[in-house]
Amino acid sequence: MLEMNNITKKFPGVRALDNVTLKAEPGKVLALIGVNGAGKSTLMNILGGILKQDEGEILINEKKVTMNSPKDAEKNGIAFIHQEPLFFSSMSVAQNVFIGNLFKSNFPFLTDNKKAEREAKKYLRLLGADDIDPHSAMEEITIGARQMTEIARSLAMGANIIIFDEPTSSLSLHEKNKLFDVIRKLKQEGKIIIYISHFLDEITELCDDYLVLRDGKMSGAGVVEGLHKEDLVTMVIGQKPSAAEKKAAGNLSEETILKVSHIVSGNLLQDVNFELRKGEILGIWGLMGSGRTELVRAVLGLDRIDAGEVFFMDKDKSLKKIKKNTLLKKVGYVTESRHYDGLFLNMDITNNCTAAKLDNYCTRRMKFIRADKEVQDTKKLIQKLNIKVPDEKTPASLLSGGNQQKVVFAKWLNKGAPVLILDEPTRGVDVGSKMEIYKIIRKIAAEGTSVLLISSEVDEMVDLSDRVIILKRGRITESVEGRDISNSNLMKLALSGGDTHE
Ligand SMILES: Nc1ncnc2c1ncn2[C@@H]1O[C@H](COP(=O)(O)OP(=O)(O)OP(=O)(O)O)[C@@H](O)[C@H]1O
Ligand SMILES: [Mg+2]
């Protein structure tokens, strides 16, 4: 039994947790839910020994435990699969599994990597992840495999309490199903599982009990069975959900702003052609690994193009062939990994929000940056996107995951580019805020901004896109419009043609 009683945690300017009590039982999955910044990660960071609570106590099997470090948490059988995966990228899978306790070899100061690999293999097999080679470097394997490695690590250290913080937000459908199988297995073995997610379908599918946080306070708890999804949404966002409105099917503009012609790049992209029209939201749909991100990177000149051309409509309203690396200056680009290439983590929100449009904030002659103007605009963006922060000078690293994602979006929105490329724009964003972001995307598109959208969430594709092109193994196989953009049709199109292993 795990009990966290009356936990309170304050940060400068926020009360992240206010008298929260959590109870979890062996053999059950407890869902921890709430909007961005509600306090979910903070509560789990306390359990994981990363943060110390100001008030309250933690009991395991009715015995009080104190956790001053992750090492202490480990001793108490607590493992944490983080929202942003943590690992040593150049070290092997096996070394990562046993990182806390590497096997010593017979030679002094050396570790026995062969033994680590043998042992790691055992745990990976237990998880049904035999396909992962314990010898591979972490940086070479997929995100799903990295996550399996983290889970293997938690098993290797003998964890009884395993925390998953938004584990599925970067997984393919296949990897997600595999993860769920693993969690069910862990459950059968009597582990305590705590599961954080913004996908309420996952909660109803996987979890037994739930705890909802709102503004650091408990706003609901109980059993999942028999619970309606709508009631869950209401508990999470604190009001009845507004019905998702689909973009009104309008007449598309005839003007093409971006034309991609016969692009070939790397081993994946083969002869890709498409046009993006003015004010259009064009979805690129495909499975993980189909080449969606690679396509965007090639078009922008971030990756090498082996053949093909890119045309862009410039200020003089004519479509011109674009030189390498110049397109990047003309568009906004929300990348798929906010920590890797989305944010300046140790800079404040203001500097992040204005980073893509700094010349707008310079004094004319001396090129000094006008900090007052930066702050003014940032305040507006914070309000518009409902970003939860104490103030605009807070470093991006201290924001909750979903709020960091909103800052990435705010930065590119602020640039006001004629083309906005969005790669998983709402990853980690809660249900309520998602609807707000959709509204903003629709609005700027209606005003003439063209949007290229990549998303793994089929609902997001369906809700937003005017047109969807289907990408499969680096080729565009189809394009659908209007009523053909439906949940079931998109699933069918992505999977048809022998790609079902994903
Ligand atoms: N180290 C820190 N210093 C200051 N404030 C922090 C720190 N960590 C978290 N916070 C603040 O505490 C609040 C709760 O954040 P937390 O990360 O727990 O939210 P969350 O529920 O996990 O949200 P999300 O769904 O976006 O991941 C937020 O307002 C956040 O900005
Ligand atoms: Mg979080």
How would you describe this protein?
The protein is α/β, with parallel strands linked by helices and 502 residues long. The protein has 2 domains: 2-237, P-loop containing nucleotide triphosphate hydrolases (Rossmann fold), CATH 3.40.50.300; 256-348 and 413-495, P-loop containing nucleotide triphosphate hydrolases (Rossmann fold, 3-Layer(aba) Sandwich), CATH 3.40.50.300. The chain is built from 17 helices and 20 strands. The protein has helices at residues 40-47, 70-75, 93-97, 113-126, 143-156, 173-188, 200-206, 229-237, 292-299, 327-330, 338-342, 349-354, 371-384, 401-415, 431-446, 458-464, 487-495, and strands at residues 2-11, 14-24, 28-33, 55-60, 63-65, 78-81, 161-165, 192-196, 209-214, 217-223, 256-265, 269-277, 281-285, 307-313, 319-321, 331-334, 419-423, 450-454, 467-472, 475-481. The strands form 4 sheets. It has a 6-stranded mixed β-sheet with strand order 6-7-8-3-9-10, sandwiched between helices. A 6-stranded mixed β-sheet has the order 16-17-18-13-19-20, sandwiched between helices. The two termini are 37 Å apart. Mean pLDDT is 90; it is low at 498-502. Residues 40-41, 83, 165, 400-401 line the site of magnesium ion.
